[in-house]
Design brief:
By secondary structure, the chain is α+β, with helices and mostly antiparallel strands. The chain has a domain of 171 residues: Gcn5-related N-acetyltransferase (GNAT) (Aminopeptidase, 3-Layer(aba) Sandwich). The protein is 49% helix and 23% strand. It has 12 helices and 13 strands. The strands form 2 sheets. The protein has a 7-stranded mixed β-sheet, sandwiched between helices. Strands 1-2-3-4-6-5 form a 6-stranded mixed β-sheet. The longest helix has 51 residues. The chain is globular and about 60 Å long.
């Protein structure tokens, strides 16, 4: 019995040992290793739900991602059949390319010099027209921009270029504002070389219309190289007439000529302009016409050309020429400007109007100012006056007719109207005879 009690006592002593862990919790802080072991054992129980959550979430993401992967796998097989199809298409294109290469080789063998000469200017024009490609992606706009009076601001609006070689010598007056070239020939050298130089300059600058004014015996030589006789200016060289030969620079070798239909259009314009003259008073009493300074006229010119394409440019047409400027107004019509470029040595003058009149008052003002200007030119000893108007412009035709001008030529694509070129009527007036005779010779 004593042994049993002793054993019970021992058990009683053992019982507090089991409760000692509750009392030894602070001791576990002192013994981090044992606490760490217990924490690791307890951690799985508490962290198990977290890991389980992760595992549960993982399947969700896996399930969500699984369709995406499956989709990619599904799309992959669809794309796989497409790959062989393009592979077959290039084979067909490759088969189609050899004929093109064969056609390109045939002309290259026969006409190597011609191809190189034709390709060189085209490359130059493409490089200069590259800035307009960004703004003119549509084909229609690109074509319109080719004739717009757009130019590089770093280059002058008008520039004289000289071509001199062992066999040729001439001057090219290049107008970038109106896309126009006048050739001043010095009667020296072979014309084919001059023609090639003129054509290269025109293509580089994107210019379509080229003219030259020569005497009668030189007309045949210019027509042989592609120019067309388009009109005459009586008294251009004082005692002899000037013959205007023009050329349209295009894709074709032959120059564009005025058709019979274009001639009928110009004739109808003149007929309508004569009828309009019957309703106009050629000398209105209250019209204001006065000579103005070059600064005022050119400032008005620049302001107009920044907004729209003007009618006149007031740019140099000849070499070493002088100019006079007039302003005019009548009633409610806006102020308009006129200019005349004259050369005393030759005795001719180009008469220009800055802006085409918009109403009857404007027509009266411009016609009266042009009459005053012609009188001033006559007093200076100028023999011939000339100007250009679009072949379909009835109002401007009536102005020149009212001032005594007459049609002596028709130029193919001679003037720039808006963003396109139109045929132009050449108006001329013999102001006086050269021999100090003030009587008109018309």
């Amino acid at each position: 019995m004593a042994t049993k009690k002793a054993s019970s006592k021992k058990k009683a002593t053992v019982a507090p040992a089991k409760k000692s862990p509750t009392k030894s919790k602070p001791a576990s802080a002192k013994a981090p290793k044992k606490a760490a072991v217990k924490a690791t054992k307890a951690a799985p129980k508490k962290a198990a739900p977290k890991k389980a959550a992760v595992k549960k979430a993982a399947p969700k993401t896996a399930k969500k991602a699984a369709p995406k992967k499956a989709a990619t796998k599904k799309t992959a097989p669809k794309a796989a059949p497409k790959k062989p199809k393009p592979a077959a298409a290039p084979a067909k294109k490759a088969a189609a390319k050899p004929p093109k290469a064969s056609t390109a080789k045939k002309p290259s063998k026969a006409d190597k010099p011609e191809l190189t000469a034709a390709v060189a200017p085209e490359v130059e024009t493409e490089t200069e027209a590259a800035p307009t490609k960004a703004s003119g992606k549509p084909k229609v706009k690109g074509r319109a921009n080719a004739t717009l009076p757009q130019r590089d601001p770093s280059k002058p609006a008008v520039e004289e270029l000289y071509f001199r070689s062992d066999s040729a010598y001439l001057c090219v007056i290049l107008n970038r504002r109106t896309r126009f070239i006048r050739v001043v020939d010095f009667r020296a050298g072979a014309l084919p070389a001059k023609r090639l130089y003129i054509q290269s300059v025109a293509k580089q600058e994107g210019i379509q219309k080229v003219i030259t004014l020569v005497e009668k015996d030189e007309v045949s030589s210019w027509t042989r190289v592609g120019f067309v006789r388009e009109g005459t200016i009586p008294g251009f060289y004082k005692r002899s007439d000037g013959h205007l030969c023009g050329c349209v620079i295009g894709e074709r070798v032959a120059s564009v000529e005025v058709s019979e239909r274009d001639m009928r259009v110009a004739d109808r314009t003149i007929t309508a302009a004569k009828k309009l003259l019957d309703t106009l008073d050629p000398k209105p009493k209250s019209a204001s016409v006065q000579e103005v300074s070059e600064e005022e006229a050119l400032a008005a010119r620049d302001a107009l050309w920044k907004r729209v394409t003007g009618f006149g440019s007031f740019d140099a047409f000849g070499r070493d020429a002088a100019r006079m400027y007039y302003s005019c107004s009548y009633k409610k019509a806006p102020v308009n400007y006129l200019s005349a470029e004259y050369e005393d040595c030759f005795g001719h003058s180009l008469v220009e109007v800055l802006r085409r009149p918009e109403d009857q008052d404007g027509l009266l003002a411009v016609s009266w100012a042009m009459m005053d200007m012609c009188d001033a030119l006559k007093d200076r000893g100028i023999v011939a006056g000339f100007g250009f108007t679009p072949s379909e412009d009835v109002e401007m035709a009536s102005v020149y007719l009212a001032c005594g001008f007459r049609k002596t030529g028709l130029l193919a694509q001679g003037v720039l109207v808006g963003d396109t070129r139109q045929d132009a009527i050449l108006w001329t007036r013999k102001l006086a005879n050269p021999g100090d005779d003030d009587t008109a010779s018309e």
